[in-house]
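Same chain as my last thread, 254 residues:
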Amino acid sequence: MVVCNRCGKPINDNESHQCSTGSVPPQHASSAAEASAQQVSATAETASHKTPGSTVPEWAKSIDSKNILQLLKNPASARNLTVSDWVYAVIAALVSALGFALFGYTLFGSLFASLMSPLSILGGSSSLTPPFSFFIQLFIYQIIGLAALFISIWFISRWKGSKPLDLKTTFVQLAAMQMPFGLGFVLAFLLAIIGFSSLSVAVAAFTWFVSVILVTTEAMEQTEVARPNRFLFITASMGAYFFLTYIVFKIVVM
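reply #2:
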């Protein structure tokens, strides 16, 4: 029996053959089935590779705990960071601001309570804690204060440094150096909670002092400030920093 190669139906010698338009050749049907199976397989494979971790942002994937530990042990290692490592600078700045705000809110809260307690006895006040907005003010103040420090150092390094850095690199590296100092402010906060107010102030002041010294000296080394210019570099940087900090304090806190 002769079979049509297109539609697969038998062909009679005595009759004219005309292929049916609705029929599908076996080989075409087989090809379509194979293509459909391949598409389903590819879809299933793609779905199997989708894990919950694929929804994590790219910046979060770049965080390495080893780098954070290294910055905690040796904040000067931040000089090896580039602009693409900005996430470490953000983490360090936020931790520093959070620790400072917790310390300041707790310390001034206790002072506020001691000042307001006589009024509360007389019925003049029912609340012995400062408003939460004061905590937000301290947080913002620390963030802007760090920015003022970095801008001051960057600006003076453009003047007295032999190899000044660009502004973005300066911010990333100097901010990442704040990683261990946030823990210092947290320690001061814990001391203030348990009643060691004087010791907490000393720890916070020591933390701030070491932070400023480290940032200034590291910036001086990185920008290759000549020895005859170091006195002027430190004096001008600190003068600009204290001036900007005073303005920020008057605007944000007062």
